[in-house]
Amino acid sequence: MQQLDDSVGLAGVVDSLGSYFDFEAHGTTLRTEVLAGLTTFLTMSYIVVANPAILAGIAGAKPGIVLPGFEVGTVQQMLAVVTILSAAIGTLVMALYAKRPFAQAPGMGINAVFAFTVVGSLGIPWQTALAAVFVEGVLFVALTAFGARKYILRLFPEPVKLSVGTGLGLFLAIIGLQEMRVVVDDPATLVGLGNVASDPIAILSVVGLFLTFGLYARGTRGAIVLGILGTTGLGWVVTQLGLVGLDAGLVVAAATTPVSMPVVGAFDLVVPGAAAGATYDISPIAGSFVGGFSKVEPVSFALVVFVLFFVDFFNTAGALTGVGQAADFLDEDGDLPDVEKPLMADAVATTAGGALGTSPVTTYIESATGVQEGGRTGMTALVVALLFLAAIPLVPLVAAIPLYASHIAVVVIGVVMLQNVVDIDVDDTTSLIPAGLTMFVMPFTYSIAYGIAAGIVSYPLVKVAVGDVEDLRLGHWALAAAFVGYFVVRSGVLS
User: Fold this and answer.
1) pLDDT of residue 410
2) What is the DSSP letter of 329?
3) Dist CA 224 CA 408 (whole Å)
4) Could you list the residue ranges that cross the membrane (predicted)?
5) Closest C-alpha to 120, from 287, 312, 291, 261
6) Could you tell me the CA-to-CA distances from 386 to 58, 61, 335, 433 in Å, in that order?
7) Mean pLDDT of 172-180
8) Mean of the pLDDT values across residues 311-318?
9) Residue 264 Ramachandran class (φ > 0 left, ψ -120 to 50 alpha, else beta)
10) Residue 119 in this model has a pLDDT that exceeds 60
11) Please, which residues have CB within 8 angstroms of residue 288's CB and are 6 or more apart in sequence?
12) pLDDT band at 9 (very low <50, low <70, confident <90, very high)
């Protein structure tokens, strides 16, 4: 009788979830959504260690969050918990309110802007920088509530909307190949081929990549998760057998800094939670933004808010559009229906992140991995959020997924997203040029926002050049002017 009650209860939960997230309308199942959520989480779990590595400062050596009386490793443990909580909050709002399969976490790239540019180059106290993040989030909430962010997204020229997905694919591919050590720095050519025949991590990465491609091509359910776990297991086996040394091969080996930011290089990282007396008390950081308001200098503070706002806004716009395209969510005009809901989730997440003590939270392009596994509803995001919460006492286990293994998924999805290029009208030069610039600038500058900027600025210019101005609106010129103004500020004041 008890077993019957349990089975009925479980069936009731499944039915309730299916009804709330409307599985039937989206052609999905609970199993598919859970697998998709697991895939997204495994792909983006590196942020639990990478974000603290970038945000934590070292007095006199590296800008960032420095707490007098606390060792760097302890601060990193605090920031790991803050990272997890902010990711879980943002993704929960995305799941339960927006009901979209998009995951959120503190953004890579903008966290480097926070630490190296705002705190480092501008000399803004980190508490005041957090206050700027909080203000940015509040502005996002207000603008979303009044429909301003939705209006701006609608202004994106069609070729830019249609090319964001492919640009994200190229961006994902170069990120993944870099972490797999297949693509490396080259002083002569900027990038080059790594030592794929002698570097153990590169060898394992290539083996894992082709294994995953093979599973994916066969249509194997969970191919990406199997590829990540299989590569992780293979790395563990060869290390235990003493066949090769992988520097432990873990996510803790180094933190990648976007090439548009000052490159600090690889630095040793104390794995959050690895010590017996792991620190979960975040009170020295959480709420620090309040004190940061007492140190505000109006002009510099406004500049910081503007820079964070601009980068975060267009990174989010690109991620929502690109992943939405991969999920086939976009309408005939290339717009994401009900976009104000995921935008509000993003705004709430950034506000909560600033209050907790981290750089802006944004929608992750790695969500495309879960979408590719069939995730179509907020259930995917709910699984990601719950896995983040479960990771709080298990941070060392999360960190045990090597970057080279998790980024195999990034490369696979990067390749798959190239199929979006077929939506672009390549026979029309006024479409081809802004679309091409959007796609190329994104990976080459390591920035979603800069790729969108290239497309938006070029669109009205090429339209005028060929005398086709009937499709232009005042908003197109306003967006282009805003980007030009941003780059003047960025290169003139923040350089």
Assistant:
1) 82
2) -
3) 8
4) 34-58, 78-98, 105-124, 130-148, 160-177, 197-216, 223-243, 301-323, 377-395, 401-422, 434-462, 474-493
5) 261
6) 32, 36, 29, 42
7) 88
8) 89
9) alpha
10) yes
11) 126, 127, 130, 357
12) low
- Alpha-carbon distances, residue 477 vs 106, 461, 468, 483 (angstroms): 31, 9, 14, 10
User: How many structural domains compose the chain?
Assistant: 1
Any domain includes 22: yes
CA distance linking residue 367 with residue 8, whole number of Å:
33
In a domain, 114, yes or no: yes
- CA–CA distance, 213 with 224 (Å, rounded to integer): 8
User: Do the beta carbons of residue 360 and residue 113 sit within 8 Å?
Assistant: no
Mean pLDDT for 291-312 is 89
pLDDT of residue 396: 57
**CB 40 within 8 Å of CB 386:** no
Rounded Cα distance between 375 and 393, Å, is 27
Distance CA 45, CA 35 (A): 15
Q: Report the alpha-carbon distance of residue 356 to residue 134 in Å, rounded.
A: 9
| Domain assignment of residue 485, yes or no | yes
End-to-end CA distance of the chain: 71
Tokens of 35: 């697998």
Range of the domain at 164: 16-492
Q: Is pLDDT of 8 > 80?
A: no
Residue 67 lies in a domain: yes
pLDDT of residue 30: 95
Locate tokens 């959007």: which residue? 438
Q: How far apart are CA 259 and CA 179, in angstroms?
A: 13
- Inform me whether the pLDDT recorded for 106 exceeds 50: yes
No. of H helices and E strands in the chain?
A: 21, 4
Amino acid at 200: P
Q: Would you say residue 335 has pLDDT above 80?
A: yes
Cβ atoms of residues 194 and 183 within 8 Å:
yes
Its pTM surpasses 0.70:
yes
d(CA 343, CA 321): 11
The predicted pLDDT at position 266 comes to: 28
CA dihedral 121, 127, 131, 137 (to 10 degrees): 80
Single out the residue of 152, 161, 64, 184 nearest to residue 114, CA to CA.
64
The tens digit of pLDDT for each residue in 240-270 reads 777 655 554 443 333 333 333 322 222 233 3
Task: Look up residue 369 and give its two tokens.
Answer: 């991995």
Q: Which residues contact 20 (CB under 8 A, 6 or more apart)?
A: none
Q: 489: which 2 tokens?
A: 């500020």
Residue 424 has pLDDT above 60, yes or no: yes
Element (H, E) at 232: helix 223-240
